[in-house]
Amino acid sequence: MEQTNIRAVACVGVGVIGASFALQFAWKGYPVTLCDVAQAALEGAKKNARENLNVLIENGIITAAEALEIEGRMTYTTDLAEAVRNVQFIQESGPENYGMKQPLLAQIEAYTSPDTVIATSTSGLLVTKIAEQMVHPERLIGGHPYNPPHLIPLVEVAKGEKTKDWVVQKTCAFYKSCGKEPVVLNKEVSGFISNRLQVAVYREIIDLVQNDVCSLADADRALLYGPGLRWGIMGPSMIFHLAAGELGIGVTMERQRESLDERLKDMAAWKHFPKELAELTANGIQEALNQRTEKEGRTIDKARVYRDKMLLELLKLHNKL
Predict the structure, then answer these.
(1) 138 & 18 share domain
(2) Which residues contact 24 (CB under 8 A, 6 or more apart)?
(3) What is its EC number (predicted)?
(4) CATH code, domain with 273
(5) Helix (H) or strand (E) holding 142
(6) Starting from the edge strand earliest in sequence, which strands make up the sheet with 89-92, in order?
(7) 240-287: per-residue pLDDT in tens?
(8) Single pTM value for the model
(9) Phi, psi at 112, each rounded to 5°
(10) Rounded distance, CA 69 to CA 63, Å?
(11) Residue of 137, 150, 142 whose CA lies nearest to 119
């Protein structure tokens, strides 16, 4: 671990995201207390931890003995005060709405010391508004992971209007010590960075399907076997820069401005996803599942196993395990 003054961590709210975060922290050596109001959620988190550890064992990432050590660093409780009282970093992953996060965070801070950092997991809510019921909103920060957090390194760090710089620095240092790649937003925007990029791409996919340019399955395949392969290595700006050769991205973009503008003319620009979105995607994804090989998985569970296995291979190449 990198040097931080964080000795223990609490994860409050242990659904899919919270439980995965907790596993990541324990994997990297931190004692973690998992807290949820529902005992069933805690039991589910414990079961998920064992399943995810088994995947790591099967892929040669950790040994069975190391898995037991990781599990030994994870404790479970329904007592919020007990969970957060003696920790230096709290990852809150409660339900994605202001009405539940605001009172929960006010309650959390009442049990903690002033120098405890509180990070809230949200995919689109604004940190400033989440902190409205807190006495010390300056120590709340957004920590948005990409699913599953215990595998994907990205975490987007979002400041609220009152978040102090020391909180940003401490949060980034902690996430880095866990092997994550924190990206700091300079200002609050709904959806952070990655989700906005993902929605922009998906809007164009839906538009292409609606206009009968291609099927949903073929749009997925076009992205997977084209730009997606390169994006798994480097970002689009660096890809454009390398393609430009000695000229560099700036000169090339200026020369291609006219052709780029031409593509924008008939690209999706609508502000609301169509009412038939659910039906369109449900029908399209079944076709995509049917086209998958047995190895890739034709059911959700098998496809998820394949996804995680491939993620681990990519992470090995990036030296992020």
Answers:
(1) yes
(2) 149, 150, 178, 179, 180
(3) 1.1.1.108
(4) 1.10.1040.10
(5) strand 140-145
(6) 74-77, 32-35, 9-12, 89-92, 117-120, 140-145, 154-159, 181-185
(7) 999 999 999 999 899 999 999 999 999 999 999 999 999 999 999 999
(8) 0.91
(9) -120, 160
(10) 10
(11) 142
